[in-house]
Amino acid sequence: MATHAPKETPIIWSLAFMTYRAPVRDIAFSLRHAAGFDRLSGAFPDADAETVQAVLDGAGALAGDILAPLNRTGDLTGARLENGVVRTAPGFGEAYQQFAQGGWNSLAADPAHGGQGLPKSLEIGVFEMVHAANMALGLCPMLTLGAIEALAHHGSDRQKALYLPRLVSGAWTGTMNLTEPQAGSDLAAITTLATPDATGGWSITGQKIYITWGDHDVADNIVHLVLARTPDAPPGVKGISLFLAPKMLVG
Question: pLDDT grade, residue 35 (50/70/90)?
Fold first, then answer.
């Protein structure tokens, strides 16, 4: 009796030839007519029509030519733990460097920290293309943007001066450390403890899980924003504090 192996080849074939054509015209239309982008021209003098179109065209090319083709490598090779360091799939580091050096991480950031000061809605349009082309890689700068916003609003002047220029440039990346084995969406259940130490800093003890881009080799440092409780904190979400814990201590 003849037997036949499962037909897996078409899946690999489709991965090998995955393409992405960014909907640049659709996004430009949505920004103008749905998001009211034209009404922002007075607040953002640098966001003229020519600049906006150039940004969207450049992001579309990056997404289609650089990011999308890496999905196959990411699916077939993936990340691996090597000598205590997470190594990303081949090509991911180079693609991230192109992303960072192209200024894509700094679009809407404050110029005081090296940002371009463009509208947030334009940044959202760009990241729509980045995430559609390669969500795995796109999550890295997305989390960094969250760290930038948190520090910009709540960081000390020293923290802003030390961390924001490097995060905005993409030289460093950021994460958020929320989830624990017993605490997923219910953050009131977290038990990670932060206790003061002799240096004026904090010693953090606990277990965090599912930390997206929590370790990698695409940037020089990783700035972790960690939710934890202090010893005298009240129960529930009111007792949660946010700590800045870089992979590599600086300053």
Answer: confident
